[in-house]
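Structure ticket #2291
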Amino acid sequence: MPVETISIPVTSRFGVTVYNVLLAHVPPTGRLLVQLPGKGYTCQHPLLYYLRQAALALGCDVLSVEYGFQAANAELDVQNAAYLMDDVWGAVRPVLERGYRRVCIAGKSLGTPLAGELARALETPEVSLILLTPIGGALQGLDDIPTLAIIGTDDALYSPEVVAAFDQHPRITWKVYEGLNHSLESGGWRASLAALPEIIGVCEAFLESERA
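Resolution: structure written out below.
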């Protein structure tokens, strides 16, 4: 199935125009994956790059979002952090006009609370979440939204208590990887590469489970 590349420009309050990328199948499939990156972990880093490839192979269109502070090489602080959701909505709104019936939002670190906020606000019939190294209150208030949460035990933000607190949630599935850090990598490149297909495979299975 052919895939076209569509640029989604967003005039950001960080003072730049960001050109987000939508990879869309022809003809449309009705399924969308939105990628919300981390602060320093963009959509071109391994986890999000290969998740994009897996999602495309499953027939999802993929919107890869870039934040204005990243394009502007600006510092993110308490005052301008509120602009992030403006960047996200600026990219997502015109894409949703294509009429998707199923949307999965994949957030990495900084992108995880933004993903949760977006998921709660969408009026799309079916919405799900992939939270890669969730931070803050990203898992709060998700209610009946199907969610896959992934973290490593060497992540400074890993908390067995937090995992346990959501262990009985009927719609949240945790995958905890021994020895992986906040980038879901290990100390050596071989171990990091070995972990990558397993993580992407879990995400792929989750997307398949949400497949029409």
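Closing remark: The mean pLDDT is 95.
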